[in-house]
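Lecture notes, unit on protein representations.

Consider one protein chain, 551 amino acids long.
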Amino acid sequence: MNGVQNQVYLLLDLEKKRVINVIQTMIKVNKQPYELVKSLTKEQMKIVQISSLQDPLKYFCPNGVQEEFINAIGNSTKDSKIPIILFTAGNGVGKTTITINSVLNVVFGSQNGWYADGLYKNFPYPRIIWYCSTGEAIKGTIYPEFDRLIPQGQGEVFKDGKPIPARIKFRNGWELIFKTYDQDPSTYESANVGLIVADEPMPEPLWRAVKSRRRMGAVTLLPMTPLYTPPYLLDEVKTAVDRGDKGYYHIKASVYDACQKRGVRGHLDADIVDSMVNSYDPEERQARAFGEFTYFSGLIYPSLHRDIHLVEPSEFPIPPYSRIFQVVDPHDSRMSACIWGAITPEGRYIVFAESPSDHKQPYWEMKRPQNIEKEVKLWCEIEKIWEKHPVDLRIMDRIFGWQNRGQRTLQDIYLKEGVKQNKRLAFIPSYKGGRKEGEIQLGHKLVRKALEPMSDGKAGLIIYNTCYHTWNGMNHYVRKHETTKSSADRGAGEGKIVEKYKDFPDVIRFFIGSQISGYTLPEKERSIKQKEWKKFKKGKKENRSTSWQTQ
C-alpha cells in the first residue's frame, strides 16, 4: 500500500475503534481531502467525510505556508513574552481558516499532529482572546468558521445586545471576545488579554490601545492581505522583523502556496489560481496574489518606484547650467524638512541633498525642538559640500514661513540668522493654487507628472539614495483608509492625508509646484542637432514671410 492508502486506513481504523483518548488519536493528516479519497470505496469515503465533518479540527490539513504559521505561533514565546506574528497572504491562501484553527488548538490544546508542540500544549498567559476585525467580516466569515469548528456543546455564544456575536465562553474557562474596528479606542483598554488577533489591519489608534493589554504576556497574530496597509505596520512590525528583533515574526504567503501543483499540500486548482492572478488589477496584484505590502489606493504617488526614482548620485550627476534650489518646510517640534534640488536645462528635477542629516530614525519620530542657529549652521555645512552648485533660489512654506513670531516672521528670523553665518537666506513663498485647482491638488498633479518618463526614457523626478528622509517620506505619503461604517461609500482617493508622514512630500510639492524652469543652455553649448533644427525653423519662417513677393 502507498502512503496515502496507509493514512486513509489509519483514519478508518480509528473511527471503527471509536478511540476517545486524544493522545491515541493524534492524527497528522498530510494530504488534502481530494488526495485522500482517490483510492477509497464509496463506503470508505462516506466514513471519512462524516468523520471530518464531525471533528474538523482533528482532520485539518494545512498547506505548506500555513504549517509555517502554526510553527511560528507554537514557538513564538521562546524569545519574548509578547510576540507579534505578521502573516501577509494573498487571497485564497486560507489565512482566516488557519488563524481560527490555530486559536482553537490553543483553546482546546493540540487537536491533531500539526499542533503537537509549544504553546498548543501549554499556554501560560491569560485565557482571554480578542478577535478584532470589521463587523461585516465577523458576521459573514469569522464567526461562521468558529461555529463550524467548535465541538458541539463546548462553547456558548452571547450577543450582549449587539446584532453580531459579541463573545464565546468555552466550558474549559477560556473566553473569546469579538471586537470591531469602528469601536472607540477606549473600548480596547479594559482587560489583560492573552491572545490578540487583528484579522486585516486595524486603525493605528486601536493598535496603540491593544498593545497596552499585553502586560501579563500575550501572543498577537496579524493575518492580512496587505492591500490597505497602515504605515505603522511597516514602521514598527516589518522594520523590527528586518532588524531581527526578538519576538517579531513575518510569514509571507503567495496564492501559489495554495496551488495543488505548485504548492505544498495545496487545495486550489492550478487553472483557477492562474485565472485569479490574471484578473487582479495591476495595482492590487502584489497584495492579492503574493502577500506583498502595498498602500494601494492610499498611496498618493502610486507610480513612485525604488528602481526608477531612487538612484546612485553617480548615475545622475547634476549637469551644467542647472538651476539650484533650497526648499524648506519649517516645523515647530523638530528641525525643518529641507531639500536641495536641481532643475536641469532639460527640465528634470534632481533632489541631491537634505536636512536633517541624521538618518538614525525617521523624520517623524524626531522630537528635538527647533534651534534655528544650529539648523542654519548645518545648512551652511551642506552647501559647502555642494559648493560647485550654489543655490539660486530658496523657497519656504508660504503659510508657516510668514507667520508672525513676535514682531517678525519666520523667514525674517532665518534671514537674520543667515547674515550671522555670512549666508544670504532670502526665501520666496511656495506656490499657490489656481482658480480651478487647490494648492495640494495642483501640487499632486505636477509631482505625478514629474514622476513620468521624459523623452530619454528616464524619470522626470530623481532622488539621490543619500536622501533618506525624502525617500522615506515619499514612500509613506498616504491617505487614511477608514474602517468606519460609512467608509465603503467613499472613493479611493477621498481619505485624509496622514499628517505624520507629509513633511518631506510637502517639500517636494513646493519644489515642483514652483513651476520654475531650468536655465536655457547658452548657444555654444547646444548640440549640432539643436542648431540645425533652429536654423531649419528660422528658414521656414523667412520663406513664409516673403512668399507673397514671389506670387
